[in-house]
Amino acid sequence: MEDHSSYGSALVDAAMNGAEEFVNYPERATTRVWHGFVPDHYARHWHGDVEIIMTLKGCVRVTVGEDPFRVKEGEVLIIPAGQSHSLTMGQDSERYLYQFQLSPVIGIHDFALLRRLLITPLYLTRELPVTGPVRALLTEVAEEAWYRDGLSDLNIYSCFLRMYALLGRAWKSGQLSGLSSPKRTANQVVIDDAVNYITRHYMEPVSLDFLARSASFSRCYFSRIFRRYTGMTFTQFLTRKRLSVAGQLLVYSDLPVSQVCIQSGFASLATFTRVFREQLGMSPSAYRRACRERDRDAQNAMLPPLPGIQSPTGAGGKRTGEARPSLAPGEPEPEEGDVPDGAPGEAEETGDGDIGTI
Hints:
The protein has helices at residues 13-16, 115-119, 131-146, 152-172, 186-201, 208-214, 219-230, 234-252, 257-263, 269-280, 284-300; strands spanning 2-4, 19-20, 31-36, 40-46, 50-57, 59-64, 67-72, 76-79, 85-89, 94-100, 122-124. With 358 residues, it is of the alpha+beta class. The protein has a six-stranded mixed beta sheet with strand order 1-3-10-5-8-11, covered by helices on one side. The protein has a five-stranded mixed beta sheet with strand order 2-4-9-6-7.
């Protein structure tokens, strides 16, 4: 767990104003916890990871979409993956911030019954009976993150699974106001099936047209309800999944970039390099080098793992407390496997998220 007395200027506002943030997790982990207790501000951004704010003291002001929240001492706010949000930590505020990927557990069948909980901000006030047990589980997560070992993520995910089970039962019993009935609609069933299919088959060609035909929906209607229930377009969802896999392979394996491209589901090296540059502001090889240099510097300084970043060069914003890699100004020279922009490759995405050619 990262424990910083000051986050400083937490995000580069110009780059992060509504932009996507890519979270770089500790090695072989898909969970992260920050503890902070000084004023700070994170400009509007979004990412494909769930984020949780648990306020220990004072207040954290959060805007999710257009909805404002004041998360006070003893309260919790759960922000679904893919939803734009900003955070302001006030004077005398102390809080835990959690980020984690749902992909390792989303295939569990019971999650299909909780789709509404996964796309709606959950504001847990002190008056709700479920808030105390949820905070106890989140405290356990923070303790486990502080003493990470090779099995910490197993225990952390067990806490998150118990948290969602508690929330699901509270929802079914009517304790969580403002949410619709947990009974799934026909559209929810279709999107659940589509998400599960993408999670299992991201390495294969997957197209919006194929999923729409499988559901007996028009392409336009399927695209609209997919965005409604997941918070992102089909293109964004599939690209985010593939880039997430690619990022892990680049940092934690020695596979050539060409093999990372194939194993993360991109059909051509040219497309992989182009999309990677567009989303992270650098080539795959530069990203690999920067992340490893950052981790090596942290290890040499005997520091705990550094907070997540979406681009090691700061092309997007970053949560501070981390060391910025010492890269030369401008784009580094391409390394093995990188393809210059404009090189021959597969066709680009077409329409509202048709990414079957990536």
